[in-house]
Design goal:
The chain is built from six helices and five strands; from the N terminus they run αβααββαββαα. The chain has 191 residues and is α+β, with helices and mostly antiparallel strands.
């Protein structure tokens, strides 16, 4: 069974995108290919003074519902006290229904739980139209409860879309109710 956001994309958002962007083919319309959830562990493990990354793996599994993949360093860097083969991060790649479920949770549950949240800036896109943002504390996810405040870590999220145009990705995410800062509010902040 498809998630609520995925059903809304198929029934409402997709036809509106095709019309608004002037596309002739359904396959041209932007869609979510995957969502990558990443946690960097370098400073986190130094702060704790341990090499046990079990808590990061456990919280990432709770957040995404999928077992994360351990990423190891490819080279040694003495300034960062990093040796080749040391664990430096964990990531989970969500595709299909689980990607839409995760996005739905982030938009409707996680962003409202962030203290002082006013919206996401519009400069979070790369040249390929992918969207990257992060949370400084993983405690904003409702599945996680923290016993030790030293074990709080950040979470980065990257949304990869089928389009290479930034404007098409922005339009797709706006239709999905992604909480961007309104244009007039962004101008006031810069003044």
């Amino acid at each position: 069974m498809a998630s609520e956001l995925q059903q809304r994309y198929q029934k409402e958002i997709l036809p509106k995108l095709i019309k608004d962007l002037g596309m002739k083919n359904v396959m041209q319309a932007p869609r979510i290919l995957k969502v990558v959830v990443n946690v960097g562990m370098g400073s986190y493990m130094q702060r704790l003074g341990t090499k046990d990354y079990g808590t990061v793996e456990e919280t990432l599994t709770k957040i995404t519902g999928q077992k994360p993949v351990l990423r190891k360093s490819r080279m040694s860097v003495s300034n960062f006290k990093l040796r080749e083969g040391m664990p430096v991060g964990m990531c989970v790649t969500l595709r299909g229904e689980s990607a839409y479920d995760f996005l739905d949770k982030v938009i409707n549950v996680v962003f409202p739980r962030v203290r002082g949240f006013r919206g996401v800036k519009r400069n979070i896109f790369d040249k390929d139209g992918n969207c990257s943002f992060g949370f400084t504390e993983h405690t904003v996810f409702p599945e996680v409860d923290v016993e030790d405040p030293r074990k709080v870590h950040g979470v980065q999220v990257t949304i990869v879309t089928s389009t290479k145009d930034k404007e098409h990705t922005v339009k797709l995410l706006e239709e999905m109710s992604f909480p961007f800062i309104k244009k007039h509010e962004a101008k006031e902040e810069t003044n």
